[in-house]
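Q: Structure for this?
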Amino acid sequence: MKFFAIILLFCVGTSHPVKAQENEDLKSVEMIFDEALSDNTAYESLRYLSKEIGGRLPNSPEVREAVKFTAELMRSAGADTIFYQEMMVRNWIRGEETASLISRVHGTREVIISDLGMAVPTGTEGIQAKVIEVNGIEELEMLGEEAIRDRIVFFNQPMDPALKSTFTAYGRAAAQRVQGPSAAAKYGAVGAVIRSLTLATDEYPHTGVTRYDEEVPKIPAVCICTAHADLLSEWLKSDPDIELFFRTSGRLLPDVESYNVIGEIRGTEYPDEYIIIGGHLDAWDTGEGAHDDGVGCIQSIEVLRIFTELGIKPKHSIRAVMFMDEEVSGTGSVTYAEHVRSSGEKHLLAIECDRGGTSPVGFYIDAPDETIARIVQWKPFFLPYGIHLFTRGGSGADVGRLKEFNTVLIGYLPDTNRYFDYHHSPNDTFEKVNKREMQMGSAANAALIYLIDKYGLE
Amino acid sequence: MKFFAIILLFCVGTSHPVKAQENEDLKSVEMIFDEALSDNTAYESLRYLSKEIGGRLPNSPEVREAVKFTAELMRSAGADTIFYQEMMVRNWIRGEETASLISRVHGTREVIISDLGMAVPTGTEGIQAKVIEVNGIEELEMLGEEAIRDRIVFFNQPMDPALKSTFTAYGRAAAQRVQGPSAAAKYGAVGAVIRSLTLATDEYPHTGVTRYDEEVPKIPAVCICTAHADLLSEWLKSDPDIELFFRTSGRLLPDVESYNVIGEIRGTEYPDEYIIIGGHLDAWDTGEGAHDDGVGCIQSIEVLRIFTELGIKPKHSIRAVMFMDEEVSGTGSVTYAEHVRSSGEKHLLAIECDRGGTSPVGFYIDAPDETIARIVQWKPFFLPYGIHLFTRGGSGADVGRLKEFNTVLIGYLPDTNRYFDYHHSPNDTFEKVNKREMQMGSAANAALIYLIDKYGLE
């Protein structure tokens, strides 16, 4: 059977200088991995950020502590310049969260919920109403006003486990959380409860932002853990009159100041050309923000530390960027892009690390074909570490805004099979990040930046 | 820069029948992944095996329960024939385990140890002696008798984090556990304490078998958790007279009967030719044997369930094999190989699943070059799931014995970055196995067996 005959021709340059260059680069890449795998600074920093500081909304005291902590860390990592970018962020704060199912058939029981970010509060009385289950926004719209009015809409569309990418599964189901509450309000719903976006069946509520349509009344909206979403769905089958009660007091206060944090190693040859790598420093407050996205922040700073430790003097200026407010309004990415626009700084490359701290798989590259081909040339350096995917793909919400500046955008891609078990939930804790998997990711990014800095992208 | 110019020529057959065949196979592979990713039977079975049955030495009541449980599971998975292979196994049982450091400088404190499998007991008094630290067997031999006599030898060689493969790092450091105690006894040591074989710094002792040399006295031997190995090493720097006390009562009783469990779906075209996939059912008793190797057993049975569920009637007979006693003496693999020898059964393919339940990376293939090339042809079916490594490599301790029968041997390879955090320790629990990662592995194996069964290997 010859379905696929694959012929691999490694046309390696055979002249001695090229071969010597290649060996030197291979040696450098191995030194970078050795350094990352043998040093615990990054892992211990993530421990501090997760366990000592913890969850950190962009407007919180915790995030201000994280701003100071990462700035200090950049200094120890050898950054020669550290600065902040000021911005005003939305000031939503979480309050009380309780919920119960009330059924004449099954009795009354508490269920585990969590307020959605930016959701309006229920008032001290809470809300109680009959529940109507829908499998996403399309089904809601098919049912229409008669079925929906005065109800709490239970959006129970699960992430599809059969999809190859968990991010695709998340993307498809996330609409019900982001637009669902306002879609339900259009038909007269009084509240919304959203199935947590995870492939696991457990008792962690997975929060996230909801975005209200200003044209319709804002209704309270919470997520419910998957175990209790299944329970509610089961109960509804034998008791369609079941009521849900919930009370939340999360609310929006006047905007406050917050910051991007940036640490830089000045380039030796092209100091005015930038290579940046970043994650977002804000994190949902119900967990510790370890996988999302403490790890991306710390891995970015670790690139600076590895360069400093190994005495690598980059030709271009290398920046680690801690973006603020990715989870709520994306203010940090807007602020950074505005800085690039107004300063006219040339940004050669921007890597986003915001898919968790598991083992590296590869890189999604958003650039012209010839740039992708150039990066793919270096793949053999990465294969021994299991890093095999160098392909066209999206970068991320924070660096994506630099596209207008012709920056080559890259999304660092770890294995995402288990990422949504943690994402936006109390299960996103330091203990769920494996040291070596995290270290492998830092090394992958540092090695790629090393090669791009050395040889450029043209 | 053109270090590597990679030209990929996919010489896909363009005639219509071949293309149609390819599409049909792609569809079958996708159906296999869909089924594995959408069904929780395997994950719930692993939960039962880990949490309800738990750790299971080859001679234990737990393993007998596991034998019955997996036989039943094979029946539900659609096996038409289920049988046992009887054998006698070593009957080592764990007893009391306590240890303390006694230092005039630092005081006295308990440390966490665990008996090594097959180790002799200390006697009720325990043993107490000065400690000499060595970085593996070579250093022990350099020090010689004068330094070693009447001491407890502290083998403190860590796994090397800079090595690309954690299995290589394990293999290099494991000699001190397997041969260390007898090597120390040759020079008059009274006991041995081995640094736990893991890259993590934590309080889990990682046990494993030790093998005594019959020519020298058998001395008690334990492993110590890495946190306390580091502590002991630190204390020794300022107090070389530090003593270690430990008491163990693990001991060997007369051999008992145990079993391999085999479930089979009879082939439609070549019923006398076998494709087997297996893991080992025994597991160290200090944990739950989830990653090592409950997951390999359940994934093997899951192949049968997927075939049955999708109505795939294999041409060859497919067997799931639960090997017994991999951890202590390898009796199950010997017994299975003897069965093959005496029955003359033709074994086309044997896959071993014994590297944990993380995301699949690929397959190590132990076969002639042309067979490997044949299997590599199917790689494009697997790449969308991140399964990319199809290369020459070792299979495993259980199926490895079938090499003499010209069986193609394959070692299923998941991502091994975090495997040794769990291996042989109380940390090897069900909760550390991610459902989707495990499901991806089952699917990878089922899809490969599907293709090999359909097209053969010649």
